[in-house]
Amino acid sequence: MDLMEKIVSLCKRRGFVYPGSEIYGGLSNTWDFGPFGLALRKNIKALWWREFVEKEENILGLDGGIILSPRVWEASGHVENFTDPLVECKSCHTRFRADQLGDTKKCPDCGGQLSEPRRFNGMFRTTVGATEDSNAVVYLRPETAQAIFINFKNIVDSFHPKLPFGIAQIGKAFRNEITAGNFIFRDIEFEQHELEYFLPEAIWEEKYDYWLAKMHDFAKLIGLAPEMVHEREHSPQERSHYSKKTVDLEFDFPFGRKELWGLAYRTDYDLRNHSEKSGVDLKYEGSFPHVIEPSMGVDRTMLAVLCSAYFEDEKRVVLKLQPSLAPYKVAVFPLVANKEELVGKARGIYEKLKKSFMTAWDDRGNIGKRYLSQDEIGTPWCVTVDYQTLEDDTVTIRDRNTTRQERIKVANLETWIKERLV
Q1: Could you list the residue range(s) of the whole structural domain that residue 412 is in?
Q2: pLDDT at 179
């Protein structure tokens, strides 16, 4: 079993990620996030918000709609330009993106002949209202950025920020991918962290370097090894229609080096376009601000974190998650589950700790199996209440990565954990 198979198996077995609509045979490239997956994603998003919004100056938040006026996507260029070249095998009828197949004319699955490429728009269409004619067509957003641009005037009218400033959002986006796959790497429904940083044109290069360094710092913060993260600048032919410069941060996934996050310099394309198409003046401080956009997918980030954290030897499987990202920060056990005084003492510690941290309680099976169970879901520390606890009010606390244990006073537990969560 290769690494990806092991990660997929662990994610389902331990409640991180489940296949979408599984009891009805599934729906390709859709996923549901179980309790631990939900917690991990929540922690990733909270850390991103802290680092890119709360710790920065002049960054404001937004939660824009998933369904926007179709005129938004016409103005942004998505209706015309959000397309991929699609080819179909004439034998097995599997569809592929032509730009990912190179020069081959043969189906990679069955060897059959491929059709000529045709353009395929990746936006999901739906309708609003009681009729389903062309006037009712709308799209699920393929990115979160446009809600920021069309609310730009609302934000500046409400808050009057000085340039440079940013508007940040975390939210769902939808893309009707021709070929998805590799677990949660490429989905038709996904979530993005996105920041639009508005600035005068004269300082874009300086600020571009700042945000690129910030993204590298975030990669280290979530536990990605620097040697597994690589920069790749897009060629002029590859760049999106709105971009003057785009750099991808790529990650060495088990299935190859692939795009993890992107940083685009969008010039003044978006505000100028929306201003022209809507008739609303979106100039600010005398001109159309330029934009730098750090865009980071939650799903791909989660997958990179899992790939980096997965460890196994002949004795155990461990998720060496950064403590700030781990679903549970600490687990509390009684040494044995049938001794009332041990269970009572352990429950008291558990009840106190869970007021400050996500805390697990486990009294099933023997202590060794409980440790292994917590290792597999990434819990950094396990606290065991034993007979010595009843004598001197100390407990053992075991480190997930090293398995080393030390005794500390119950009164010092909360402080000990907080110091290591910074």
Answers
A1: 330-420
A2: 64
The single residue listed with the structure tokens 């369904």 is 67
pLDDT at 335: 96
Among the listed residues 223, 224, 243, the one whose alpha carbon sits nearest the alpha carbon of residue 235: 243
Query: Which of 62, 97, 121 is the endpoint of a domain?
Result: 121
pLDDT per residue as tens digits for the range 202-226: 999 999 999 999 999 999 999 999 9
pTM here? 0.91
pLDDT at 205: 98
- Tell me how many domains the chain contains: 3
Instruction: Give residue-wise pLDDT tens across range 98-121.
Output: 777 777 888 888 888 888 887 777
**Rounded Cα distance, 167 and 169, in Å:** 7
Residue indicated by tokens 């100390």: 394
How many Å separate Cα 391 from the centre of its chain? 46
Q: Which long-range contacts (CB under 8 A, 24 or more apart) does 348-351 make?
A: 349/383, 349/385, 349/395, 349/410, 349/413
Distances (CA, A) of 356 to 21, 198, 348, 352, 415: 35, 37, 14, 8, 10
Counting as low any pLDDT under 70, the low residues of the chain are 178-180
Residue 184's closest CA among 11, 6, 383, 372?
11
Nearest residue to 306 via CA among 260, 362, 370, 262: 260
Please give the DSSP secondary-structure letter assigned to residue 104: -
> Which phi and psi angles does 290 have, rounded to 5°?
-85, 165
d(CA 355, CA 330): 12
- Would you state the pLDDT for residue 180? 61
User: In terms of Cα–Cα distance, which of 291, 255, 241, 297 is closest to 76?
Assistant: 241
Q: Same domain for 145 and 283?
A: yes
Whether the CB-CB separation of 260 and 248 falls below 8 Å is answered with yes
